[in-house]
Amino acid sequence: MQTILKPRAYEAALATILLLCLAVFFYKTIHWPLVGDATLIHYVAFLSDHGLKPYQNIGDVNMPGAYAIDWTVMHLFGDGVLPWRLFDLALLLIGGGAMYTITRPRGWFPGLFAASLFALAHGRDGIAQLGQRDLSIAVLLLLACAALFHAHRTPSPRAEAFIGLFAGIACTVKPTAFPFALGLILLLALGEKRAGRNGNRPILRAIAGSLLPLAAVALWLSYHHLWRAYRDTLNGNVRYHAGVARHSLGYLLSHSLSPFLPLAIASVLLLGLSLRLSENRKMQWDTVVLSVCTVLGMLSYCLQAKGYPYQRYPFLAFLLLLIANQLSAALEWSRCERILAAVALAIAVLVIAPISAFKAISYDYSEDPFGTALQQDLIHLGGPALSGHVQCLDTFSGCIGTLYRMKLVQSTSLMYDEFLFGPESNGTIARNRALFWQQLQQKPPEVFILSKQLYPNGPDTFDKLLRWPEFARYLHDNYVLFHEFNPTQLQNWGGRPTVPAGYRIYIPRDPTPHPDTDLFEVTSFPNRLGSQNLSTP
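Above: the chain sequence. Below: its structure as tokens.
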């Protein structure tokens, strides 16, 4: 096998295939649309530019760092679809550069291997995962880890500060990054001790770097007088949201490694062999760091407990680095280890990578039945004049995304109807209902858009209104159904094709009957918005 397998030539051949898969993925998906969670955070940034404030006038549950990233991208590069797609690709490239820096002592191949598989895994997860918060967190933590390796190899005050800075920024996006920040600082201390250096100053620099983003968030909240609203959001909506749609540990573990289970098994076997054959039976420094970061990534994934593909990204990024190092090193070992590593690498490059690229390019981004139909209806009802007079009763179906594309401001602060149609006995639901009801009385919307979906556990029918009977009666007494849309064509944005959610549009009830039907003639609403007279179908 030694004469047949030349590790460097083998790696070059595998790298060529990986780069071809990446090129196809990047080229074929460059026009993926802006959908999913990104539209929600974009909409918050849009509302912020119109004088509204998160947590106070906008009922969102994301952390300030998530808004800061989206707002920065939107204002530097534009708020359209292409800038966000390019931002997503830029994250993958930056993360790949950090992976190369981390694995550089072992050659060029491990970093390329890990970065390529990570990018392709992100692509196969689907269109809705573009620019996800956990992708930004994963890249920030990779940069922090790269700074840690640089500081360990060549003592550098700047690198030590960057460890904390990048980890601190990640903490402002999601609190699940806090264990990473603590872990990286402890690893810095361990590395200084192993190198026989005084670790006090490096640790202080890393801590100071981590405090800068947190201080910036604190100043922003103070400047906009949002501390109380932020605290109430954390104690109310954030806590409620974190407690719903949680899966068991078994479910999380079974979905965490897809599609890299064979590689993980091979890597564990090789790691065990390396420890058995090693004289001192100690892990090398890079293996220790990457193993700790992989465990912290799994902890982040399990803490969120929702099992969404993008929540694995910090875990997958470091797991793939660990696998890449182990498999690449094993190509230089004895016959048995070389064969195992070569087979595992072949499975990754000849099976997992092409299948992932094929899945990514097979998603159909041209069809958005929900958004297309809703936008046409809203244009018919007044278009730009609806701003400030329209209200979504939806969470993830696409209503907020449609309002964002049309640049329409909602009537109330409600963003997600999961906070209205949840269990009536829950205090957070009761408080959200009271606030929403108060805002309805102050400024009744001219248009209600009710989606068919209810996050997280349904019912995915319009019967979700029955979970709040008082509001259902209010809607029946004061509004009339203008249009109901129930798509039948499948939508393939990731995973299995599904039928998109439907929606209903309600507009104010006119007491004047239509002469030819039992329905009401809709005259007052369009006249108020300067549009043509319409009647319900």
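Confidence is low (pLDDT under 50) at residues 511-537.
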